[in-house]
Amino acid sequence: MVEHICEVFRSPLWVFDIFEESLIEWIINLQPTIRYVFIEDGVITSIETLDRVLKNLKVTEHFYLGSTEIHDEEFEVTEPILSGFISIARSYWFTLPAILNGNNSIIRLYDSMLPHKDINTILKEWQRGLKLRNLEYLEIEHVMHRGIRDDDLEVLEDLNFTPNLENAGRPRKVQIHDERTYWLPHVPFVCDLVRDDGMIGSVSYNYRVFRFQVWRRQI
Fold it and tell me: Which residues form the Sdz-33 F-box domain (predicted)?
């Protein structure tokens, strides 16, 4: 029915909610490029299916992937997901190269297994200015929590940062697209990194959630 409507009105789909696995092949064949895709929990049951989604479905604005039924903890994805905004539940398989080599503007990872040394590498590469040029906001929720003090030391190791107890103009929201805004939680303390082009990256760590917000101070 949806395919018939699209054909009659010559109107492409701009958002698609995948709640069963059979719809994956259907949308790939009908319209492999789409603005918003949401794949619900439990739809992806194999590495092969996930690989087909990542290689054949181009999501330009927001790609959301719920929890998969893949239980191979050795499985990794090293290629970036080509979407402006990505949200991934149970993202243990999403690795450092997939982040560094992507052009994503917003990344939200849940139940991540990224070690803190990898987050440290992300911050260093962002500050050098050769990678992550489009990044506006990064949020990583870790599976394990070892204590804020230890995490801070490892994440910020060898970085030139300024502790900041005041907001000092930092935006409280991230614009996801024209019709949706993500309001950021209040954090009492951040560490600011400054890039050569004047962009500021504010780092915060609350319980087991790492946040990195990129912004520019208004004159």
Answer: 87-140
pLDDT class of 9 with cuts at 50, 70, 90:
very low
In this structure, the strands spanning 209-215 and 200-206 are antiparallel
Q: What is the pLDDT of residue 198?
A: 94
Sign of CA dihedral 177, 178, 179, 185: positive
pLDDT at position 150 over 60: no
Q: Can you point out the beta strands (E) in the chain?
A: 15-18, 33-39, 58-65, 85-88, 106-112, 137-142, 162-164, 173-177, 180-183, 190-194, 200-206, 209-215
Supply 37's token pair.
């895709």
Pairing of β 190-194 and β 162-164: antiparallel
Token pair 């949020």 is found at 139
Residue showing tokens 């503007």: 105
**Stretch 25-33: mean pLDDT, rounded?**
96
